[in-house]
Design brief:
The protein is α/β, with parallel strands linked by helices. The protein contains 17 helices and 13 strands. It folds into two domains: 3-206 and 446-474; 211-442, Carbon-nitrogen hydrolase (Nitrilase/N-carbamoyl-D-aminoacid amidohydrolase). The longest helix has 33 residues, at 447-479. The chain is elongated and about 75 Å long.
């Protein structure tokens, strides 16, 4: 790897970091990969291309996820390197497709085939990194860079965050071809991009954002751990008139064997509110005696009856070791409509909101806990992911965060109300019930698994070819 190639790769990493919050310079995502492609595709072999990609990845993840130092301390660089592995794999496969394309591809379609297959490889590797393997973490999926670009974000209702990632990757590949003088793929994809933008503008204007009357909601934001303060924020002023009350994740700890009594005490103190209460709590091994942590949410009717319980489905790797993962989420019937509950990290993944949309949820309610010590940088990145889920599912989101940013988001991804990082108070606003389900939740979600399957087959193909080449060379050496 030459200094020039390393510089190009580092530039890509920097552009990617700037495309995401807190900078949110989303147009950069559409060109950020071009310097990396320029450097990697000039590499003499796949190993050199991987090393070049590693430079881009370390700059990108090391910059954007520097706040992980607050979570994992000295081990944080190991996480950055692990995330780089999947970027390196994607670039290696893109290099192979360019230099050693499958023989079945007609030469005249080589450029188009390379753009399409490279985009599929990007989606496959990103989907595996974000959702499939044991260290799943959906942060910084390329499509999330566009959550502030509302017209383009609307395409997520068709193909989700991974489809948008793939289109951005394809656009970058076409941009690199245009740099080399082959401009037709870029012209076609630019036309598609303009069409998506126009359709997105139309969709935002004509989308039916909900059913019935506005529903007042009160979202409590507080990280003091003082339950008395949380009750005060829930019942003070206009919050008393809310029809849905949401607390942050793990607002209380339930003593072992005292769930009914504790729930009764919560009801007694909430007397006077007419709200359906979404109350998240926790039960730890020292209290439960069963060796597992339970991170759950009770949904209580205004009369105190338990309407349903949801258990966190996606524990945070290494942070929530011992947490008993909950089953596939189901919508909970309530007097105000069918509520779909997601707890914090659950909303980072596409499967929960998709299952809830299938189950007829009319509103997504999200208790969240992002410790203030993880910095405002982390809070902005996490909050920017929620609009993607609103568009994918076609549902309003009411998100109550412990230290920010609590949000009310409509089905086209507009943030209708928000409370900043580090503040304590009650975010008041209105939501509407929506008809659950989009093209994405019905069939568009299949794109990412299909791309993963393609990537696995392609990896096997090139590994097999490399193995055959190694055996041939060994035989030739032995014959001498």
């Amino acid at each position: 790897m030459t200094p020039r190639q390393a510089s190009w790769a580092a530039l890509s990493g920097l552009l990617l970091a700037l495309a995401f919050p807190p900078f949110a310079l989303w147009p950069l995502a559409w060109v950020a990969l071009i310097p990396l492609l320029h450097a990697a595709l000039e590499a003499p072999d796949a190993k050199a291309a991987a090393n070049i990609a590693a430079v881009a990845g370390l700059v990108f993840y090391g910059t954007s996820l520097h706040w992980l130092l607050k979570v994992f301390g000295k081990t944080t660089p190991a996480f950055w390197c692990i995330y780089c592995l999947w970027l390196c794999l994607a670039v290696v496969l893109v290099w192979q497709l360019w230099h050693k394309p499958p023989a079945i591809l007609p030469l005249r379609w080589r450029a188009w085939a390379w753009v399409v297959m490279s985009a599929a490889v990007w989606v496959g590797c990103e989907f595996f990194r974000c959702e499939v393997w044991w260290l799943n973490n959906a942060w910084l999926a390329l499509g999330f860079s566009q959550t502030v670009n509302l017209p383009i974000l609307q395409s997520a209702s068709l193909w989700g965050v991974y489809g948008l990632s793939g289109f951005i990757a394809a656009f970058n590949c076409a941009g690199w071809l245009a740099w080399r003088g082959e401009r037709k793929p870029l012209a076609v994809l630019a036309t598609v991009l303009a069409t998506l933008w126009l359709w997105g503008r139309y969709h935002m204007t004509h989308h039916a954002l909900g059913l019935g009357e506005p529903i007042p909601v009160a979202l409590v934001q507080d990280e003091t751990g003082n339950l008395d303060k949380v009750f005060h924020l829930s019942l003070d002023g206009a919050a008393r008139n809310a029809r849905i009350l949401v607390w942050p994740e793990e607002s209380f700890t339930v003593p072992a064997g005292q769930e009914d009594q504790f729930r009764g005490s919560l009801n007694a103190r909430l007397r006077g509110t007419k709200a359906v209460a979404v109350l998240p709590g926790a039960e730890y091994p020292a209290a439960s005696g069963n060796g597992t942590v339970q991170n759950f949410t009770w949904v209580l009717a205004p009369d105190g009856n338990l309407l349903g319980r949801y258990d966190k489905h996606h524990p945070i790797p290494f942070v929530e070791d011992g947490l008993l993962a909950g089953p596939t989420p189901r919508a909970i019937d309530s007097p105000v409509g069918k509520l779909g509950i997601q707890i914090c990290y659950d909303l980072d993944f596409e499967d929960g909101t998709r299952h809830l949309a299938h189950d007829g949820a009319q509103l997504l309610v999200v208790p969240d806990q992002d410790p203030l010590e993880w910095t405002d940088w982390q809070h902005q990145q996490h909050s920017a992911m929620a609009p993607m889920r609103a568009v994918e599912s076609g549902l309003w989101i009411a998100r109550a965060a412990s230290s920010g940013q609590s949000q009310i988001i409509d089905p086209v991804g507009r943030i209708r109300a928000q409370m900043g990082t580090g503040l304590s108070g009650t975010l008041l606003g209105t939501v509407r019930l929506a008809r659950s389900g989009t093209v994405y939740s019905q069939m568009g979600w299949l794109l990412a698994p299909l791309c993963l399957g393609f990537s696995v087959i392609l990896t096997g193909f090139y590994l097999g070819a490399a193995l055959m080449g190694w055996r041939t060379s060994k035989r030739a050496i032995a014959a001498r």
